[in-house]
Amino acid sequence: MQAASHHPGFAWLNQSLAPLNAAAEYAARERQRQLTKPPGSLGRLEDLAVRLAAMQGSERPCVDPAWISVFAADHGVAASGVSAYPQEVTAQMVANFAHGGAAISVLARLWGASLEVVDVGVARPLPGLPSVVAARAGEGTANFLAGAAMTEAQLALAMAAGREAAERAWRAGSRLFIGGEMGIGNTTSASVLACALLKLDAAVLVGPGTGLDQAGVARKREAVERALRLHGEDAGQPHGALLRLGGFEIAALCGAYLRCAQLGLPALVDGFIASVALLCAERWVEGVSAWCLFGHRSKEPGHAVVLAALGADPLLDLGMRLGEGSGAAAALPLLQAACALHNGMATFAEAGVAEA
């Protein structure tokens, strides 16, 4: 935090995180003991209800309505051939989100969640599109193989875009925040960020991303190694890492998780890129991850490493690797079920059932 504290755009990060509510957690745990079932028989669904009770300060937690913000931005490193798709796909996919044709659009409709797309820095100009919020920090990041990915002012703007999305969710009365991302080249950025923060080699974290072949993965690994050599110790802390190696959408996700923890709004974390953004947030302010649940384990090989660093145990393992917040959205019904069971089941006394 000291490295960034002189810039006024980071002042909001000095706000304390919301405390978890121990009394509500205890009350929820006691309720679980009284429900008409053997103790622990609903497994992790019981634990989810109790954790949400602590987060929401209520013995009867609820995750509806849920809010989904998908942050989109482009990456200068895409010019180095690190993705199977051309950079113009980012803008095309933003239009697809806005018109309801993407996976996250379908899942948001299915679960009744609010969905917005936040343009944090798509390289190509976007025409007016429904449900797209303009919060641009630039026209894509610079290529971090030649210098810093962004300026201090751009990092502050990108993180503020995430902060403002969390605040929109909070003002709308949402009970759960899901962050997604879209940006060609962003698995490369996420990989190098994780390498820098965890002090690991590129071979441990670099994977196929959008579907690179073996030669493409080797090219991507070499780009990550070059970036680590270029930026070195300057990227060892979250501020420096995001400044030099990050993407605008990753910085926005980092800001969103930080603000959720300040507001006391539970967040359901998506896959590899979202988890790297949370790693940045947790390294920036310890305790942010206590406000997070983890939707799924991505097929991207580096995700398991980042999850282990966060001490996370995701709900699903379906071989997904799409991004967009889709893995988290796929796990949303489990949270809905956990709350419905916790709130709706009868106690032994209410049902007239003898206890063990």
Short descriptors:
Rossmann fold; 14 helices; 6 strands; transferase; single chain; globular; alpha/beta; 356 residues; six-stranded parallel β-sheet
pLDDT < 50 runs, ≥5 residues: none
Q: What is the helix fraction of residues, given as a range? A: 40-55%
User: Can you summarize the main beta sheet?
Assistant: 6 strands, parallel
SS elements, strand count: 6
Would you list the SSEs in sequence order as H and E? HHEHHEEHEHHHHHEHEHHH
Which structural class is indicated by helix and strand composition?
Answer: alpha/beta
CATH architecture identity = 3-Layer(aba) Sandwich
Just give the CATH class: Alpha Beta
CATH H level: which superfamily?
Nicotinate-nucleotide-dimethylbenzimidazole phosphoribosyltransferase (CobT), large domain
Total number of domains? 1
3D shape? globular
**Which fold does the CATH topology refer to?**
Rossmann fold
Number of helices: 14
Main β-sheet, spatial strand arrangement: 3-2-1-4-5-6
What gyration radius follows from the Cα positions, in whole Å?
Answer: 20 Å
CA distance, first residue to last residue = 53 Å
Strand content: 5-15%
What do the pLDDT scores average to?
95
